[in-house]
Amino acid sequence: DTRRLGATIDVEHSHVRFLGNLVLNLWDCGGQEAFMENYFASQKDTIFRNVEVLIYVFDVESRELEKDLHYYQSCLEAILQNSAEAKIFCLVHKMDLVPEEQRERIFRLRQEDLNRLSKPLECVCFKTSIWDETLYKAWSSIVYTLIPNVQQLESNLQQFTNIIDANEVLLFERATFLIISHCQRKPHHDVHRFEKVSNIIKQFKLSCSKLAAQFQSMEVRNSNFAAFIDVFTPNTYIMVIMADPTMPP
């Protein structure tokens, strides 16, 4: 239950193993004013050294936007001094609290401000909420930038898709079910389908674990397509979608 999650106190460290041998060292820095001042006064060289990715979360309903932006720029200055090659991502969070008809406009305005204030660095912005698939999409995009040799991976996936004559092929990280890469031969109207598929599979895996069973594979067919999900490598699942619903697995 997300309502029971407390505020981050100072800096919390965690390690996430991704794709088997890629270990992500996460430093979750609390956003309270006293902590922010301390980061820049005494911990700057420690926190901002050897950073690959900076993810800055803005509360879209914050009443202290000017202060939020000041701290953001202080982070960017520290990044420039200690990790100039780091990638910058901004999450404009709690978008579910904004009336739906205003969300796109407010996000675009915030995005323009952040792009301007981030120079000479470049930032990528995402509008996010814990109540839909937007956080998944943001994290998939962020982790994608950390995957080594990703261009070669995409090229191989394209060849595989063509060889088996699939409509679409998706590659998921096994533990998190974040999307690593995908290839589609026909455009699809639902831009959130990856996030939806991932959520369905994660819920199904959870149901399996409650029954002391382990998720291995899944097959879905209807009159329009056949979809297969199976283990691909020790660290990935693959999903193959075929236009022919009679196609054997």
TrEMBL record:
CDD domains: RagA_like. GO terms for cellular component: Gtr1-Gtr2 GTPase complex; lysosome; nucleus. SUPFAM superfamilies: P-loop containing nucleoside triphosphate hydrolases. Keywords: Cytoplasm, GTP-binding, Nucleotide-binding. GO terms for molecular function: GTP binding; GTPase activity. GO terms for biological process: cellular response to starvation; negative regulation of autophagy; positive regulation of TORC1 signaling. It catalyses: GTP + H2O = GDP + phosphate + H(+). InterPro entries: Gtr1_RagA, P-loop_NTPase, RagA/B. Pfam families: Gtr1_RagA. It is found in: Cytoplasm. Belongs to the GTR/RAG GTP-binding protein family. This is Putative gtp-binding protein. It comes from Rhipicephalus microplus.
